[in-house]
Amino acid sequence: MINKIILASKSKIRKDILDLNKIKCEVVPSNVDEDTMKKGLLKEKASPETISKSLAELKANKVSQKKAGSLVLGADSVIDLKGKIISKPVDREEALSILQELNGQTHHLISSVCISQNGSMIWNYTDKATLTMKHLSKEDLKIYLSKITDKALYAYNVYQIEGEGRSLFSKIEGDEDTIMGLPIKKIKEYLNNYK
């Protein structure tokens, strides 16, 4: 088994999940321009799964080109609301608008992971969870947002399933690690069998 990888992300929650699972990692953010890439893929009518996988691969490949021989893990998550991709909010006003859009709706959260070596993908996995948000008043949504720090809000999209965000949902189907952005069981399976 591999006991050390490089994480091509500055996501604290992804690093925490790896630490919790005793996978040592060095953090090397990819600094990929996700928005430009996403816009290009949307123009090509790419599926949410393709967008998530492509971004995870781009991040892993970019960092692995500079880190010869190392295994580099890239990850990306997207919210798919009836075919519409919802990105991270840029401010609290947009966060409220996103929550209002998701309010009372069922959406999918898609997480992709990719492991690259020497600039090329050698493994990838994409998983999807389904979440149904309660019908909440605008006031309830504002109260929820007031409890979330800026750092958390901009890092993890508009809800954190491991914290306050759980209270927003009437139904959650799927792997919680997928919802948090890192389907760790599949990553461990791959690393355990890596030769």
Tell me about this structure.
By secondary structure, the protein is an alpha/beta fold. The protein has a single domain, classed as Maf protein (Alpha-Beta Complex). Helices cover 40% and strands 27% of the residues. Strands 1, 2, 3, 4, 5, 6 and 7 form a seven-stranded mixed β-sheet that branches. Strand 5 and strand 6 (120-133) form a beta hairpin. It is globular and about 50 Å long.
Briefly say what this structure is:
The protein is α/β, with parallel strands linked by helices.
Question: The biggest beta sheet, please?
Answer: 7 strands, mixed
Q: What is the typical, i.e. mean, pLDDT?
A: 90
What is the CATH C-level name? Alpha Beta
Number of helices: 8
Number of domains: 1
The CATH topology corresponds to: Maf protein
Q: How many runs of DSSP E, i.e. beta strands?
A: 7
**Low-pLDDT runs:** none
Overall 3D form: globular
Instruction: Tell me the distance between the termini.
Output: 8 Å
Strand content: 25-35%
**Helix vs. strand class:** alpha/beta
- Looking at the overall shape, the CATH architecture is Alpha-Beta Complex
Q: If you compute it from the alpha carbons, what radius of gyration comes out, rounded to the nearest whole angstrom?
A: 17 Å
The residue fraction in helices comes out at 40-55%
The run of helices and strands is EHEHHEEHEEHHEHH
Question: What attributes characterize this protein structure?
Answer:
195 residues, single chain, 27% strand, seven-stranded mixed beta sheet, 8 helices, Maf protein, alpha/beta
